[in-house]
Amino acid sequence: MNTECIQESFEFHPLDRRKVIGNFDGGRITSDAGGLLLREVEKRIRIIGRFAKCFTDYRQAARIEHSVEELVAQRVYALALGYEDLNDHDTLRHDPLLALVCDKVDPFGHQRAREQDQGKGLAGKSTLNRLELTGREASHASRYKKITIDHESVDELLVDVFLDSYRRPPKRIVLDADATDDPVHGAQEGRFFHGYYGHYCYLPLYIFCGHHLLCARLREANIDACAGTVEELQRIVAQIRKRWPKVQIVLRGDSGFCREHIMRWCEQHQVDYVLGLAKNERLIHRIEAEQAQAHAQFQASGQAARVYKDFLYQTRDSWSRRRRVIGKAEHLSKGANPRFIVTSLKDKSASSLYEDMYCSRGDMENRIKEQQLSLFADRTSCTQMRANQTRLYFSSIAYVLMHALRRLGLKHTDLANAQCDTIRLRLLKLGAQIRGTVRKLWISFSQSAPSQFLFEQVYNNLQHIPLRC
């Protein structure tokens, strides 16, 4: 049987006559020094600190080495820096830079109570998983898992952070609602096979306002895509109008959200809407003349042609009233492409409503992909659905933090509109050596880092924003 050992050195292809030897002996070096900028953002918006207050800690205070806020910060910062699994933290706990970012007073772990924890400034996976796996019934009498989360408080926090981002109330905001698939590969609670997506999944509901995330609700997949939308709108709209009573609110969504109960609720609560409308024979018949006109224009120019028609329409059974419908009669190289939307708005032309208002909805899909692919919102592998919802909240807070960095720190830079993974690669993944004395912590960045000027721009932008107590 061969003895397993850790390789201490690596000999690479020589350079001319010189050997090239690599060793993991560089000392306290981190690859995530850009995380210091995330810490500066946190000091100004306090998203992690406010998120930590959504947890209740039933642990014995005298036996705690990692506060709830430190544990929450460790989890959120790690997601933002690209570490999706709790297993990663058994190595990350050695990183004094991440401990510094999490505000650990002893980032090098010199003062840990147990000898086996010496040199590890952060918590390991077995401590962090209590944030996700503690049930709502936890109490001081619980044996192991004693940190429980209040989901309603997190929902309220996401809207509060959005409201706080404005200096003065806007005249109009657009709420984008959409559902997507979250594939699962185990026997998770609430999983179902979805015929449209062709696999077992969850069907989370997202609501954004521009780049701001207002709702991330994990749901079973055996439901209509719009299920629960009214309930989410009720709390979000009420919270917004409590702060901004005069703001005009517009709901935007695809045809999966064109349902009588949603439109009726909007009409009863002074919320406008622009929703996709699935085509049928009656609708297509209403724009036959416009479709023929678009066909003629296409034949004459060889370019895509579209003609709009504005009319009132009511379904035979499902709608309670007539509503304004915009029909787009379009002809492409592949043939006719009729599309329809229904709206309560009256202050815009048909073409403007479709092209400027409705088509902008597609940007929300980029935000969902950004959270799922860059911030690991699809890592819902826990057995219990409540735990998976908590994981989705951690991803959501990481997204809010990254967007705050983009909104506050990256404005007027080349990455002002960059996605999270690009920001991470260009700005956060910086090599640095960390050294500590009694009075100072020294962070020595790589002299060859290509993003030095960008780092300086972001740092200076953040210094102009006051700290939040």
The CATH class name of the largest domain reads Alpha Beta
Straight-line distance between termini: 60 Å
Main beta sheet: 9 strands, mixed
User: How many strands?
Assistant: 19
Per CATH, what is the topology of the largest domain?
A: Transposase Inhibitor Protein From Tn5, Chain A, domain 1
Beta-strand fraction estimate: 15-25%
Number of helix segments?
Answer: 17
CATH architecture of the largest domain: Alpha-Beta Complex
Mean pLDDT: 94
- Helical amount among residues, as a percent range? 25-40%
Rg calc: 26 Å
Low-confidence stretches: none
The helix/strand class is alpha+beta
Number of domains: 2
The 3D shape can be described as globular
Describe what this molecule looks like in 3D:
The protein is built from 17 helices and 19 strands. The protein is 37% helix and 20% strand. The radius of gyration is 26 Å and the shape is globular. The chain folds into two domains: 29-149 and 376-463, no CATH class; 152-374, Transposase Inhibitor Protein From Tn5, Chain A, domain 1 (Alpha-Beta Complex), CATH 3.90.350. Strands 6, 10, 11, 12, 13, 14, 15, 16 and 17 form a nine-stranded mixed β-sheet that branches. A three-stranded antiparallel β-sheet has the order 3-18-19. A three-stranded antiparallel β-sheet has the order 7-9-8, with no helix packed on it. It starts with 8 loop residues before the first strand and ends in a 6-residue tail after the last helix. α1 runs parallel beside α17. It has 469 residues and is α+β, with helices and mostly antiparallel strands.
